[in-house]
Amino acid sequence: MMEYKKLGKSDLTISRIGYGCMSLHPEQKDFLSLIDKALDFGINYFDTADLYDKGGNELMLGKAFKGRRDKVIIASKAGNQWRPDGSGWDWNPRKEYILKCAEESLKRLQTDYLDLFMLHGGTIQDDIMESISAFEQLLKEGKIRYYGLSSIRPNVIKVHTAYRKVVSLMTQFSLLDRRPEEATLDLMHENDIGVLVRGSVASGLLVDKPARDYLGHTAAQVAEAAFSVKAVSQSKRTPAQTAIQYVLQHPAVTSAVVGMRTPQQLEEAVGAVSAPQMTSEEIKYLQTHIPARKYESHR
Question: Residue 51 CA to chain centroid, in angstroms?
C-alpha cells in the first residue's frame, strides 16, 4: 500500500514514490497504460520539465491527465532555454523567461495551475531575487501553488534556503551519491523543506547495469556497492527496493522520484514502500561498505 508525506511547509501530500516522467517518451505507445497503472498503485506525484523532449513530455502528461487533473500533483521546471538550432540549452533564470516558461507549460499540460514549479538549476552568480520575483508573481496570479528548487549545488541551495521561500528541493541522492548527507539534507530538514530525490538507483548501477566509474567511485568500488546492496536485500526485497528504501529512510526526504519505463519497473519501485523495511544494522552496513564522497565544488 502506498504511503504519503507532506512536502515541507506546503499542504501538498505526495506519494513516497513519485513518477519521474523524463523516463517516458512521446513515441512510447504504452505511456497511458503506465500512467493508469501508477495511479492505481497510489502514485499521485508526477514530475516533468519543459526541457524534456523540448516540451513533448509535458504534452504527453497533458493528454494523460485530461479529465482527472484533481487526482494528481503535477510538478514542472524552468530555467533551461533551448538554443534556436536545437544543439543544446543555456541557463536563463531571468524573470521574463520564467514567466514565459510557466505560460507555455500550462498550455502543454492543459491545466490552469501547477502544483509545484521549480527552478531547474542555478548558479551562485544568479540574481536570485529576480527569480523569486517571478515565482511570487505566479503565486499571486494563481498559476502555481508552490515553488521549489532543483539543484545539486550546496552553495545555491544554501542561498535559496536563507530566503525561506522554497518549499522543496529536488536533488540527486543515492548510496553511490551520498554527498547530500554531508552538505544539504540536514539543512533541509531543519528548515522544513521537503526533499524530492532523483537518481536513487544511480542510473541502474546499484541494480543491474555493468559497473563503471561514477562520481569519484572507481568501477571496482561501484561493483562492490552493488554487491553490498544485493547482500542486504537477499530474499527480503530487490536491490532496487533496497536502494530506494535507503533514500526514503532519511527524515528530510519526502519522496523518491523514480524513472519507470516498464510495468515491471513501476511495480518494483512501488513495492519498495511495502517491502520489509531496512534495519538500522543494514543501513549501517551499507554506509560502512560504500564510501561517502563530498562535493568538491560549488560549496
Answer: 14
Report d(CA 78, CA 82) in Å as an integer: 11
* pTM of the shown model: 0.96
Residue that is written with C-alpha cell 514530475 in the block = 47
Specify whether 52 is catalytic: yes
CA 193 and chain centroid, separation: 14
Share of the chain above pLDDT 70, in %: 100
> Which residues of the chain, if any, have pLDDT below 50?
none
Determine the Cα angle at 159 with ends 135 and 178, to 5°: 110
Helical residues (DSSP H) of the chain, grouped into ranges: 31-40, 56-64, 95-109, 128-140, 154-163, 179-183, 185-190, 219-233, 239-248, 263-274, 280-289
Question: In order of start, what are the domains of the chain with their CATH numbers?
Answer: 4-200+248-276 (3.20.20.100)
> What is the Cα–Cα distance from 17 to 191, expressed in whole angstroms?
22
Catalytic residue among 19, 45, 52, 146: 52
For residue 169, CA distances in Å to 209, 210, 298 come to 28, 30, 16
